[in-house]
Every structure is written in structure tokens, then in C-alpha cells.
Amino acid sequence: MIIALDAMGGDFAPVSTIEGAILAAKQSNHKILLVGKEKSILDEMSKYSKKYNLKSLNIEIINADEVIAMDEHPVKAVRQKPNSSLSICASLVADGKADAFVSMGNSGAVMAAALFYLKRIEGVLRPAISIFFPTIEGSCIIADMGANVDCKPEHLLQFAIMASLFCEKIAGVKRPRVGLVSVGEEPTKGNALSLAAFELLKKADINFIGNVEGRDIPRSKADVVICDGFVGNVILKFGEGLSEMILKLVKKALKKHPFAWASLPFSWLAIKDLRKNVDYTEVGGAPLLGVNGISIVGHGSSNAKAVKNAIFAGVRAAEHNLVYEIKEAIAKYNKVINNE
């Protein structure tokens, strides 16, 4: 696989992106196209020349004169900066020169670039960011995580169809349980959007289990959780803050009790497992479902580990031919709707 990485995207780029690319190249034979300001990339890579044999790594540098900043207007920036690292990454996938592109940069700009260069899959109304979220039994998939803050019921239905496929193909869950985020389990609970979406979802060819409340998400009640991007992004950011708080509270509590602190060497493996389960860097990035190519959106504050795992997320999506699967599912859905 060939993965184009936006080397200039993210709060800690190009430091984290370069190291992440090197780690990914070391652990695989996949080719990584580092797209960004050539001099900055070379300067950063030179720091690893003593530690790694860089010439043996399957990495190619592609120069990009422009960079889209985290605070720029997404659509305007993509239109005005065709030579930005992000735009070139998206065009490489559109031209068939890369199988996927990955960016830790401005998420709105990533979506704009994907729509501008890759276009939407025919029949898809809105693309959705779909990400793994930790639960008691492992993880669930939430869509949308922030690409669309204002949605219509039919958008949520398509998110459910696409995220179900993502869960089935990438996570290996057969007939995933799909839940709709609402303020109560009863079908009559919710706002106008969730009430209308409920009616559409219960008629769709998916394993819809009804409404799920916020507390049901970490309890593993559903494999796929559907909501608009506003709610999804709040869930994501709250979850990140909560997991960080829990780990700090555990550390504080251990320090308070000398005997508990003394037992730390014996409980360290369990604590490490806990940290791994709630660590967003383990996931790396999320695919933008519904565009005609693989686009992975990473966290703005991603470290090298997160970048490496985002690259592998792009590889998995490409290997499972996720775009084709979504095309087929949406075409089937539209055919049923039109026949009605």
C-alpha cells in the first residue's frame, strides 16, 4: 500500500509526523509519501540518521510549498492553497498515486480537501467521521464525530449504513448492533432530529436496537453509535478528558496509601492495560466515510505513536476495500428508496 502523509498537519508537525512515518515504515513494507516543505522534512529526518538506517525505509518526500494552518477557514484554505501539503495528499489519492491519505491537521480542511479532490460517493448526502471509542468490552464505533454539526434524519441513516460496514469489515463484528443517541431508551424520547431518524433507522436493513443513552455507550450496549457531529464531538472530547482524569485519580489514590503504592510493581501491567484501552493514540485516526477514496482524519495533538497508527488505519481501510463496500451499500439503499 502507498500512504500519503500530510507531514505539516497537526499541532506538533513536522516533529510528530516525521517520527510517526519512520516508525510505520520500520514496522511494515508500505510506502509512505511524506508531503510537505522538503527542507523542514529533511532537517527533521536527519535527527534520526544515527538511530535508523533511513535509506532502507520505504519513504519518499514530495515537496509542498504551502501549509494549511489549524485556524484557517477550511474551504477557503483548500481553494486558495492547491499546493498545500494537505491538498497534494488528497490529489495523490484522487490521481491513483496513493491508496489513502492521512492528516492530523485542520479537520474541517481535511474534509474540504477530500470533498474537493475525491468527491462524495454517488448517493452519499454527507460524509461522516467514524472513530473507535473505548467501552467495557473493547470498543464501539461512533459516527459522526464532528464532520457535520447540523444534520437531517436521512444523514443519520446513511451514517448508520456506512458505520455498520466499517464496523463489520474493519472490526470484524458480524451484524453490528446499531444504537441512536438520545435522552431516553423509549422511541418517543428525543428531539425532532432523533425522533425522525428513529423511524428511518428501524425500517433500514441494519441491526438497529433503538435509542441508547450516554451511559450506555461505555457499557457496550451498541457496536455502532449514531449521532450528529455536534453531539459526537462532545462525546469524544468528554471521553478523552474523563479517561485522563481517571488515570490521574488512580495515581493520586495510590500515592495516598503507602501499601497500595508499594504494590504498584504487581499491578503495573493492569494499569498499563487500562491506559492502552483509553488511549486515543492506539487508534490513531478515523476514516472519513462517504468520500470516493480513503481519507484518515487524525487528532490535532497527535504524537508519533498516533501518527503511526493513523497510517496503519489507512492501510486497513484500503486493504478491506471500504470505499467499494460503501458504494454498494448506498446504491442498494437508494434503489430500495426509489422503488418505494
List keywords for this structure.
eleven-stranded mixed beta sheet; alpha/beta; 48% helix; Isopropylmalate Dehydrogenase; 340 residues; 2 domains; 11 strands; 12 helices
Order of helices and strands: EHEHEHHEHEEHEHEEHHHEEHH
Task: State the name of the first-level CATH class of the largest domain.
Answer: Alpha Beta
> How many beta-strand elements?
11
The profile of the biggest β sheet is: 11 strands, mixed
Q: In the residues, how many domains can be counted?
A: 2
* Annotated CATH topology of the largest domain: Isopropylmalate Dehydrogenase
Distance between the termini: 41 Å
Spell out the CATH superfamily of the largest domain. Answer: Isopropylmalate Dehydrogenase
- Average pLDDT, rounded to a whole number, is 90
Structural class: alpha/beta
Q: Low-confidence parts, pLDDT < 50 over ≥5 residues?
A: none
What is the second-level CATH architecture of the largest domain?
A: 3-Layer(aba) Sandwich
Describe the structure.
- By secondary structure, the chain is of the alpha/beta class.
- Helices cover 48% and strands 17% of the residues.
- The chain has twelve helices and eleven strands.
- Strands 3-2-1-4-11-10-5-6-9-7-8 form an eleven-stranded mixed sheet, sandwiched between helices.
- α7 (192-203) links the parallel β7 and β8 (207-212).
- The longest helix is centred in the last third of the chain and has 28 residues, at 229-256.
- The chain is globular, with a radius of gyration of 21 Å.
- 47% of the residues are buried.
